Amino acid sequence: xxxxxxxxxxxxxxxxxxxxxxxxxxxxxxxxxxxxxxxxxxxxxxxxxxxxxxxxxxxxxxxxxxxxxxxxxxxxxxxxxxxxxxxxxxxxxxxxxxxxxxxxxxxxxxxxxxxxxxxxxxxxxxxxxxxxxxxxxxxxxxxxxxxxxxxxxxxxxxxxxxxxxxxxxxxxxxxxxxxxxxxxxx
Length: 186
Known about the structure:
Blueprint: H1 3-12, H2 16-38, H3 49-60, H4 72-95, H5 115-135, H6 137-148, H7 153-160, H8 164-185
């Protein structure tokens, strides 16, 4: 049993000190994954990799939520879901009337006319991903690990406990299905 799996088991059993032991073991990997994910976001994001990792980590080890992880891969899959939710919440918050709706503060040096479209694309992807998850949860999990965490196909396959070939097939199918759904909706 790895240190991460042992600590995850302790957290599940309610050991509050275990959460403090977990962060140093997974921080670098979570930070790398968050940074890779945010590279695909428009410039001028209010979300930075460190903030994304810390917020996701807090959600993952919340004692009230009683997390149940059976492996390191399961923990990173939960981290992918937490990061996805944070990014979606951030995109929705930016779009809301209360936070300026369609009005945006713009730094003239970093003007990116496609930034608004990318926020809308992220929300469209989230909707389509929800539908994919209802029908094919394993394929949706692969998309979350690849798109929201930035894992490669081999990393995601290992995390999910599936073969590289299966991961490739799932990825090809999921991308085509999501693209068709987003195009149909848009």
